[in-house]
Design a protein that fits this description.
The radius of gyration is 18 Å and the shape is globular. The protein has one domain. By secondary structure, the protein is mostly helical. It starts with a helix and ends with a helix. It is built from twelve helices and no strands. The protein has helices at about 5-15, 15-20, 25-30, 40-70, 75-95, 105, 110-120, 135-140, 145-155, 160-185, 185-195, 195-225. InterPro entries: UreH-like_TM_dom (IPR039447). Keywords: Membrane, Transmembrane, Transmembrane helix. This is Sulfite exporter TauE/SafE family protein. It holds the Pfam family DsbD_2.
């Protein structure tokens, strides 16, 4: 198995405190209009749609980066992109640890597009049918998120459209446990994500992985020089 798939899954799994903060009211939002006949289907459909959007992002970024690399005269461009990916992992770790909030500046880049996309999602509320949460999730997957943008840098170095989609799919699956628990109203996951000890362990783990990725990329660059 490609190590990037595992890494993307782990980053999604460990970094979802940010997602929980942004989507903490998701359960009540999707249950509007269901009355007393509440089921788990809207939450499931929502997350399927959200992960589908991530896969589309990964395919687009992976394919575009590969194409540009093939026509570019810049030597070892994928290795340089991997170094950028490592730096983004470190930035993400600093954000998760609440030591530096530079990642929020990256999120602002997507707010201009989001203000045009978000009304499409609001038109689906309240959900008339459970499966309407699927297109809602696809739209909500475009919500500006520094965690997603960080994972997309891995898709950029994947080397193909398919690999990019698979990396973002792995990332999405990593976010799934926390997002499902939040959607079902489990407050314990929120308390865990807010724990300073847990947050510090997660942040250091992500930073170490970023350093490891960057070290390997620099070694590759040196060996190819």
């Amino acid at each position: 198995m490609n190590a990037d798939f595992v890494g993307a899954f782990v980053v999604g799994l460990l970094g979802t405190g940010h997602c929980v903060g942004m989507c903490g009211g998701l359960g009540s939002l999707l249950s509007i209009g269901q009355g007393t006949n509440k089921t788990a289907l809207p939450i499931i459909f929502y997350n399927v749609g959200r992960i589908f959007s991530y896969c589309v992002f990964g395919a687009l970024i992976g394919g575009l980066a590969t194409t540009l690399t093939q026509i570019s005269t810049l030597n070892h461009s994928l290795i340089w992109l991997r170094i950028l990916s490592a730096m983004m992992m470190i930035v993400l770790g600093l954000y998760v640890g609440r030591w530096w909030f530079g990642l929020l500046k990256l999120e602002k880049l997507g707010t201009g597009l989001w203000k045009y996309i978000s009304p499409l999602g609001r038109k689906l509320l309240p959900l008339k049918k459970s499966w309407h949460a699927l297109p809602f999730g696809i739209i909500w997957g475009w919500l500006p998120c520094g965690l997603v943008y960080s994972a997309l840098t891995w898709a950029a170095v994947s080397g193909s459209t398919l690999e990019g989609a698979l990396i973002m799919g792995s990332f999405g699956l990593g976010t799934l446990p926390s997002m499902l628990l939040v959607g079902f109203g489990a407050t314990q996951i929120k308390q865990l994500q807010q724990s300073p000890v847990f947050r510090t362990i997660v942040a250091i783990s992500i930073i170490c992985y970023g350093i490891y990725t960057g070290y390997n990329a620099i070694n590759m660059l040196v060996n190819l020089s």
